[in-house]
Amino acid sequence: MVIWQTDSWRLVLKEQLLPDGRRQQKPIVVHPGVVVLVPLLDDQVIMLRQYRLALDQMIWELPAGTRGWDEDWLACAQRELREETGYRAERFVSLGEIWSAPGLSDELMALYLALDLTPDPLNPDEDEQFERELRPLAELVEMAVDGRLQDAKTIVAILRAARYLQANG
Amino acid sequence: MVIWQTDSWRLVLKEQLLPDGRRQQKPIVVHPGVVVLVPLLDDQVIMLRQYRLALDQMIWELPAGTRGWDEDWLACAQRELREETGYRAERFVSLGEIWSAPGLSDELMALYLALDLTPDPLNPDEDEQFERELRPLAELVEMAVDGRLQDAKTIVAILRAARYLQANG
């Protein structure tokens, strides 16, 4: 049963069978997933300072965006990259997939390193409010560990990108 | 306006002022926050294999739990630790606070290292289904980086715990 539906996700009542045999209804966010991008220009990453209504503040985040329900993951990655950074990537390297909040949502986050960037902008969504800023990857790794980065997907993607580049760099 | 209310969180319509001056309503999950625990027994961490209805599978997670709206954060940490591991901690060390999904929720996750453990169990929530397993911290760090861990809060907390113990261990 769908309780609420937005452009990008649905709140659905799902039945759970408990260990003692009883059943209960639990509300679950059903989500098409997001891409999270680590766009690399030399040794710098294109970061966003983004306004988040839920927090009513600007926070540091990697470029990221919600997938259309039937959208190909890499097509989504290229589209979001162009919208949020103004670049396209010749190459995406997967940094794995993570769940944001499996206690209440099935949202999967696919992490990608975006490499060999060339300018090719696309207009961003009109409700997004952010500024771009280049930051050295090494500094972002420090920020991920010491607590200056607080967005979970951003922390994981930065640390995995650093590890990948160290091994394959 | 509250759209839906559960025991632990609410779905609320919040008004957003767009850069062009228009206003739109956006649904936001308003959440009391969770504690995420890294319970250390010697150099091993108490991990959970937990069933998640949203994903319909068992996943690796650190012990964690939702705070009561008015509950003290450290009281919540001790309660969840006792419920999910059967131990109490003499000492909690903060590993920072992260947001799980700031695009749709204000959920804050407070990460703690739980140290100097002694047995003191408390009955867990009846709808939780998990098994406990001890794993070496060094192995969990590998799992966080190579993709075997997929829960965002677990990855961040494990990496921060390892860093803290390296510096203060």
Description:
Chain A is α+β, with helices and mostly antiparallel strands and 169 residues long. Chain A folds into 2 domains: 1-30, no CATH class; 32-168, Nucleoside Triphosphate Pyrophosphohydrolase, CATH 3.90.79.10. Helix content of chain A is 24%, strand content 46%. Chain A has helices at 73-85, 137-146, 152-168, and strands spanning 2-5, 10-17, 23-30, 34-41, 44-52, 57-61, 64-66, 87-99, 108-119, 130-136. In chain A, the strands form 2 sheets. In chain A, strands 4, 5, 6, 7, 8, 9 and 10 form a 7-stranded mixed sheet that branches. In chain A, helix 2 crosses helix 3 (152-168). The longest helix of chain A has 17 residues, at 152-168. The interface between A and B is large, with 51 and 51 residues.
Number of domains of chain A: 2
Question: Architecture of the largest domain in chain A, CATH level 2?
Answer: Alpha-Beta Complex
> What's the CATH C level of the largest domain in chain A?
Alpha Beta
User: What name goes with the CATH superfamily of the largest domain in chain A?
Assistant: Nucleoside Triphosphate Pyrophosphohydrolase
What's the alpha carbon Rg of chain A, rounded to whole Å? 17 Å
Shape label of chain A: globular
Q: What portion of residues of chain A is helical?
A: 10-25%
Return residue spans of chain A where pLDDT drops below 50 for at least 5 consecutive residues: none
The total count of strands of chain A amounts to 10
- Cα separation of the termini of chain A: 48 Å
Q: Could you give a short account of the major beta sheet of chain A?
A: 7 strands, mixed
SSE succession of chain A: EEEEEEEHEEEHH
Tell me, rounded to a whole number, the average pLDDT of chain A. 95
Total number of helices of chain A: 3
Interface with most residues: A-B, 51 and 51 residues
- The percent range for strand residues of chain A is over 45%
CATH topology of the largest domain in chain A: Nucleoside Triphosphate Pyrophosphohydrolase
